[in-house]
Amino acid sequence: MPTVSDRGKIMPDSPIRKLGPLAEKAKAKGIKVYHLNIGQPDLPTPPEALAAIKNIDRTILEYTPSEGILSFRKKLVKYYQKFDIDVSVEDIIITSGGSEAVTFAFMSCLDPGDEIIVPEPAYANYEAFAIVAGAEIKSIAAKIEEGFSLPPVEEFEKLITPKTKGIMICNPNNPTGYLYTREEMNKIRDLVKKYDLYLFSDEVYREFCYTGAPYISAFHLEGIEQNVVLVDSVSKRYSECGLRIGALITKNEAVKKNVMKFCQARLSPPLIGQIAAEASLDADPDYMLNNYNEYVNRRKFLIDGLNRIDGVYSPIPMGAFYTVARLPVDNSDKFCAWLLSDFEYEGQTVMMAPASGFYTAANQGIDEVRIAYVLNKKDLAVCLKILEEALKVYPGSKVRQKAFSKENN
Amino acid sequence: MPTVSDRGKIMPDSPIRKLGPLAEKAKAKGIKVYHLNIGQPDLPTPPEALAAIKNIDRTILEYTPSEGILSFRKKLVKYYQKFDIDVSVEDIIITSGGSEAVTFAFMSCLDPGDEIIVPEPAYANYEAFAIVAGAEIKSIAAKIEEGFSLPPVEEFEKLITPKTKGIMICNPNNPTGYLYTREEMNKIRDLVKKYDLYLFSDEVYREFCYTGAPYISAFHLEGIEQNVVLVDSVSKRYSECGLRIGALITKNEAVKKNVMKFCQARLSPPLIGQIAAEASLDADPDYMLNNYNEYVNRRKFLIDGLNRIDGVYSPIPMGAFYTVARLPVDNSDKFCAWLLSDFEYEGQTVMMAPASGFYTAANQGIDEVRIAYVLNKKDLAVCLKILEEALKVYPGSKVRQKAFSKENN
C-alpha cells in the first residue's frame, strides 16, 4: 500500500469534532446532549434567503464566475460601506466559506517554511490551513486573566524573523469573544508596517459587538492598505453556515492575481449559496436586531451563570458568540470526554470544546473550554446546572477535591 | 509590500478562462460568441433537483457533516452498484465539486517533491492541484494519430522513480473523449501493482460512453482496491455544475483518515447542493436518456463536420462531451485569440480552448484545440461554418497559405 502524505499526518484532528463519537454514544444511551461545542447558531436564516432559494427560476444550475456573481459582489461593496470599509467590487472575491478564503490567502501569500504569528487561543483551523500551505504558525498566548487582550508588542517582535510573512487575527475573536481596541489595532498596524507583513484579518463576527466599543476593521488602519487580506463569511451573521459562502477581500493586486488562480482552478463558488447570501444582505433590520439582542441576553445570562459556579471563571466577551472559560478541573480534554462518557444529570449532559485545540503550543489552555452560546436561555440554564453538578462529582475536579478535603478535616 | 507566494506564481492561468477578456471585448463590439471552450452543458438540470431546492422546508441552513449528508452517501452506494462499483457508505466522502476531491486526494497522498504520472492532454487543473500539494506532474503525451489511446507502458516505466507516488487518469477523458479499453485499464492496474502506486481516477463522465465499449472503472480492477482514489462529481452528468458537489471514494483507511482531516478543516460541503444532488439521483431515466441521445447526435454531427473542413482532423471521441481536434494553423493559442479579436463571420465567432493548456510539457498541442459540444446542433452547424471561414483567412492558416500559393503558381 502506498504511504499517505506527512502533511495529512500532521494535520490536527478537529478539536470540536473529535469528541463526536463519544457524543453519539451518549445519545445512543438515551442521554440528551446540549451542544455548546459548535459555532452553529440555532437562530433562523433570514426569510429573504429562504425565499430566494425557493424562487430560483433557472433551468440550468451553471457555474458562476470564479470570483463570484457580480451583483452579489456589488451589493457587498455597499454592505462594507456601512462599516466604513471602503472597497471596490474588484477587491472582493467570493469563496466557498471563510475556510476557503483563509486557505487561498495562505496559499497565495505564504510558501513552505514561511511563518505567521497568531495570538492564541485562536480558531483551530488556521493551523490546518497553514499546514496546507506548508507554513508555520508561531503563537503568542493571550491570557485569560487579561481577558485575552492583545499580548504585548514585544512578544510579537521576539518572534519576528526573516521568515515571518504575516500576522493573523480574528476580530471579534473566535474562541474568546475579545474585541480589539483602537489602540491595540494601531499597535498591530505599526508592527505590520515596520516589518512589512501581511495582516490576515478574520472579521466574520463584526455584526456581533456588544459593549459599545467600536469594531475596528483591518481596513480602517491607515498606511497598510496593501498588506491587508480580510476574510469574511455570511455563515454566522445570517445563520446560514451550510451555504458555504465567504469572501476574501484585498486591495493588493499581486495577491488578487494569485488568489484568482486558485479560484479558477476550483472553477466556481456555490451558485445557490451565492443567490441566498445576496438575498441575505437585504435581511430586515429587525431580523438582525432580534438576533443581536438574543445574543446580548444569552451572553449576560451565560457569563453571569458561569461566574457564579464555584471555581469557574469567564472573562466578559465583547463580541462573537463564544467565551473561553476556566474550569476547576485537572484537564479539560479529559473533563469534556468524561461529561459525555461517564456523566449525566437527569438524563442530560453538555458537550463543550476543550481549549487545548485552540492553542498550537503544548500545555496551554488545559483548564479552559470554549463555550458557544448558540442555545436559548432556557437551555443555557440547564447547561449551567449540568456543569455545576458535574464539577461536584468529576474525579479531576478541584472543587470536589476541596469539598472532599474539608469534609475530612 | 510583502511578496506573494512562489506557489501562486507558478500556478498556471486557466487555459479556458484566459481568453475571457478577449471574448468580453468581442461581445462589447456586438459580436455573438459561441462558447465551445467550456465544460458547462446547456442541457437542463433534472426537474427533481430543482424541485428539491424549491421544497426545502428548513428554517436554518446548517452545516452538514464534514463527510456529507448520510442519506445522500447511502444513495450513492446504490448508484455506483449500477456500474458494478462496490463501495460502502464509509468509502464515500462528499466534496465541494470534483475539484476539491482531486485537491484532497493529492493533499492526503502526496508530499512536496512527490511525482505523479499523467497521460496528456489532461484536464488542466490537475496541474494546479498538484502545485497546491507541492507535487510534480510527469507527463506522457498521448498522440492524436492514435486517437489519444494509452501511451505504451514502457513510457510510464521510464518516468517511474522513487518519488513516483501515483498515476492520474480521467476516464472517459476530458479533454480528448477517449475511453480506456479493458486491456489498457489492465496495463494501468499492473503498473499500479508492480510499483505500489496510487491510481487517482477521475470518472465524472461515466454516464457518457457512446460506442458500446464498456466503461471500466478503476474499482473494477482486481488487486489494487487499496490503491484507488476515485474522483466523482454530479456537475456534468446532471448539468448542475453550480452546485459544487463531488465525491472522493476510496477503500484505503489511511487515505480516508487524512482526507477527513482536510474535510473537517473546511467544515462542510454545501448543504443545498447536497440536497439537490441527492434528488438528482432520482432523475427520470428518460431525462438521462434524452441527454445521452442529444450528446450522441451532437458528437456525430460535430466530428463529421470537423473532418469535412479542409485540413482539420478530429479523432472520434468515445465518451464525455469534448474532442481534441488538429487544426491547420501555426499556433492554436494565437488562432483562438485571433478568432475573438480580429475575426467575425456575419457578426459571429467561436471561442475554443487552445490545447496547449492541457499539456504541462512545452510545445505540445500547438495546433490542437479542445471543442466542447455543449451547444445544440443548430449552433454547432454555425460554429463549423465560422471555423471553416476563419481558416480561409487566418494569417497563420496552412489552408490559406496553400490556397494562396496555388493562386500564385
UniProtKB/TrEMBL annotation, chains A, B:
Record lineage: Bacteria, Pseudomonadati, Bacteroidota, Bacteroidia, Marinilabiliales
Keyword terms: Aminotransferase, Pyridoxal phosphate, Transferase
Record-linked NCBIfam families: PRK07568.1 (NF005744)
Protein's name in the database: Aminotransferase class I/II-fold pyridoxal phosphate-dependent enzyme
Gene Ontology terms describing biological process: amino acid metabolic process
InterPro entries xref list: Aminotransferase_I/II_large (IPR004839), AspAT/PAT-like (IPR050596), PyrdxlP-dep_Trfase (IPR015424), PyrdxlP-dep_Trfase_major (IPR015421), PyrdxlP-dep_Trfase_small (IPR015422)
Pfam family, one: Aminotran_1_2
Family: Belongs to the class-I pyridoxal-phosphate-dependent aminotransferase family.
Domain Aminotransferase class I/classII large, chain residue ranges per copy: 33-342
Cited CDD domains: AAT_like
The keyword Metal-binding appears for this protein: no
